[in-house]
Amino acid sequence: MLTRIALILIVIQCACAPAAYVDSAVTLYVQRWNRLYPNDQADYVEIIFGALERPNVGWCGPSGVTLDRSFWEKSSDLGREALVFHELGHCVLGLGHDIKDIVVNGQMIHRSLMYPSTFGETWMYVANRDYYLNQLRR
Ligand SMILES: [Zn+2]
Q: For the chain, is the Cβ count within 10 Å smaller at the N or the C terminus?
């Protein structure tokens, strides 16, 4: 009986694990991710700002995501979204980089948001945002 209670407590504890720390500037993008990908919630991923070696502006490591603040400050809403979603693609979905390009509506674009350099500020992401968000879906 005691073992059964202990197992139940462990299960409850795992299901109710507190959300990880997310810098308040990034919360909006995590909420956006959680709405878009309800089966792949990102609440458990810590997201902080820190020093990254150029050209890196985002990093998914063992403790979570680190973002470069100077890049963040200069980025638009969609630039920030593309950066956060790329890193969550690594940290939540376990995706690697994808360097392939494809033709969509007669234009050559990167096949995935998991392209190694961020392009959220470009027409490619702005004009094809729905494609990229759906492409990340599993
Ligand atoms: Zn990456």
A: N
